[in-house]
From TrEMBL:
Keywords: Amino-acid biosynthesis, ATP-binding, Cytoplasm, Kinase, Nucleotide-binding, Proline biosynthesis, Transferase. The keyword Cell division does not apply. Catalyzes the transfer of a phosphate group to glutamate to form L-glutamate 5-phosphate. Pathway: Amino-acid biosynthesis; L-proline biosynthesis; L-glutamate 5-semialdehyde from L-glutamate: step 1/2. One of its GO terms (cellular component) is cytosol. It is found in: Cytoplasm. One of its GO terms (biological process) is L-proline biosynthetic process. This is Glutamate 5-kinase. It catalyses: L-glutamate + ATP = L-glutamyl 5-phosphate + ADP. Belongs to the glutamate 5-kinase family. Its EC number is 2.7.2.11. InterPro entries: AceGlu_kinase-like_sf, Asp/Glu/Uridylate_kinase, G5K_ProB, Glu/AcGlu_kinase, Glu_5kinase, Glu_5kinase/COase_Synthase. GO terms for molecular function: ATP binding; glutamate 5-kinase activity. The lineage of its organism: Bacteria, Bacillati, Bacillota, Clostridia, Eubacteriales.
Amino acid sequence: MNTREQYLGNVKKLVVKVGSSTLTHPSGLLNFYKIEHIVRQLADLHNQGIKVILVSSGAIGAGLGKLRLKERPKTIPEKQAAAAVGQGVLMHTYEKLFAEYGQIVGQMLITREDLSSKKRVVNVQNTFSALLDNGIIPIVNENDATVVDEIKFGDNDTLSARVACLIEADLLILLSDIDGLYDSNPSTNKNAMLIHTVEEVNEKVINSAGGAGSKLGTGGMATKIKAATITTEQGISMVIANGEKQEVIQNILNFDNEGTLFIRKNK
Ligand code: ADP
């Protein structure tokens, strides 16, 4: 059995996070082709009996497009207004596309405060369980229209890691605009090499990470590595892969050497 088979076998509950850089064009408008591709893959996994949870960024990007703004607004209320418009656009798009495959989605908007007390955590867990037990695909995002910095996860990489732990997922996949984690930032170092397997999130791994590559990306690799720390500590493996590659999720589950695998700690 190779490493991939050992850590990616028998996935029954899967969290997939898609970043803004994958869901939106550089213009900020939604990239329907790529969204459709993600939806089709998830719908098919659902039909294979795998419970899937989608963590989707893109609300502010979708709002910018709808409001015909050329760049992110500067003030917090304006950003949040863009998110309020965009979250609706995003959900409408997902609902429509998943419905084409006969599937129902449920929106879960979460803030860090929702996970701050045992009672609230149990409440959120129960909602996820009820959605999944009823064959509904939860679509998760931070509640960008209401949160302020002090109570923010701040990025969906961390949020998706927390969700994966909360629902005891078998695997977290972060889909980005890049093939995986490189040994240094590929946008500044042309000789950077893709790392296929990370056995331990140590200082060397942390130091390889740079910031976001695109105008719409947020956390870059630093937040993805933080997500890996959270999940692997809880015994959940994580993969970073390129959301643009055809059938990338299925390929990961077929043990192809796709992206970067962060190996879970023994649990
Ligand atoms: P997303 O919207 O998918 O979360 P981000 O733009 O936040 O994407 O993060 C992905 C970007 O991180 C890449 O496009 C790349 O420019 C940048 N990056 C920085 N350091 C690294 C690294 N060591 N390996 C890969 N990508 C890196």
